[in-house]
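Methods, example record. To illustrate the input and output format used throughout this study, we show the complete record for FAD-binding domain-containing protein. The sequence lines were provided to the predictor; the line carrying structure tokens was produced by it.
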Amino acid sequence: MTDTPIVIAGAGPTGLMLACELGLAGIDVLVLERLPQPRTVESRAGALHIRTMEMLDQRGLLDGFLERGRPLRDVHFSGLGLDLSDMATRFPYALFLLQAEVERLLEERAAQLGVRLRRDAEVTGFSQDETGVTVELADGSSVRADYLVGCDGGRSTVRGLAGIAFPGTSATMTTMLGDVELAEPPAADIFQERREHGRFSVLSYGPDWYRVLTNEFDHVAGRDEPVTLETLRKSLLKIAGTDYGMHSPRWLSRHGDAARQADRYRVGRVLLAGDAAHIHFPAGGQGMNTGMQDAVNLGWKLAAVVRGQAPDLLLDTYQAERHPVAARVLHNTRAQTALWRVDDHTSALREVLGDLIGIDEVRLRLAGMISATDTRYPMEGTDDLLGRRMPDLDLEHGRVHELLHRARAIVLDLGGLPPLAAVVTGWADRVELVRACPAEGSGLGADAVLIRPDGHVAWVTRVGEQPDLDALRAALTTWLGPAGPHGEQVRHGPALPPMQNPD
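The corresponding predicted structure is encoded as:
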């Protein structure tokens, strides 16, 4: 007998996003957070990328984030600007929003969904068997759960206790960070330069509030070496030749460019997500976003297994899909830190890359990588749509993202295909059949698609083709589990009325 189906260790963006996904699916969730109070000052991350905003939009949550954030038209690759304004999305920008605010909004949503959050609750041990996991806490208490998910950061206790290796590359540089006030700030809201002794950035975070960062190469500070305003000032003076009148620090910190990834995301009933599974230099602001995207990939799968609808093997697809994504993030952040070095050879390389970014195909390729809009999961079949995110098409009575607010799979019938209903009936408790017409100019080139709860396409039939119903059954079985009792009425999506079949 378990106390709760799911225990999540860590109430950062990844853990809270996962808790929201599971709560939306009706799963009882307990989040254990080591810190006694929410973070209000410390915000390592500061932006949401396109794919993360799309996922929040799929759950009907994005408006609250947009109200509190500031759009940024550009992202960057090692400080080289990437214009997003022509990206194929409703949100062709990054959203400046501090991690502390992201956590606050997600915590509010989790509470609305009935998620339980215990603060000052540090995980110190666990044991697992065939029926569950017993999680031990620092206060001597324990919790019994079906599954434990470690979302407890780069120094993850859960990862260490699980014996999961964390291979990668060690730090080669030191970054100091300070959220401070400046008496004489630079004119630009985002100011970054490479100089003889390193690289520095000054980012405007609000009225009289700036984030100052310095990068010193080939110097690795001790892990526990303190950061003071004077050490940051000294570093900035060395690199920039000025401290911009820096004073009144809110937060000071230090990190390096170590890049490591768990060799396994799952050991039995214990899984990892976010920084517990991968760490890297925060180049391009990808870390928080990658973790939240981990959570959306894992949440619906874990819910299906806990409900007994899908076999435990479904959880293995989490690593198969997300491990390569994070590996590529580590790869591109290593490349970006290499391009920040200040020698003549690197400067020449930056000039060449800067010219190449002027080519739209190159710019969009890099922007798709940083924003995660080019993520494609491995799927059976050859159609280019398979595994990719479903475009948020305008439909006659709504749009695609509105169909995903309840995190249920969707069979979207755009071509009036009567045979689909008979197939979908076997999964009527897990999937909705929505018949709709795309709005003018919103064509997909497909008559029907199966959209997973995370918004990725798992089956497609092109316009004019005979639908492969066996392939649809196979996809439904793979992603939603075996069919249930037949004869149930197919559920249609609430946002769109059924489309009349052609005569």
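Annotations derived from this record:
Confidence is low (pLDDT under 50) at residues 486-503.
Residues 4-168+260-371 form a domain with the FAD/NAD(P)-binding domain fold (CATH 3.50.50.60).
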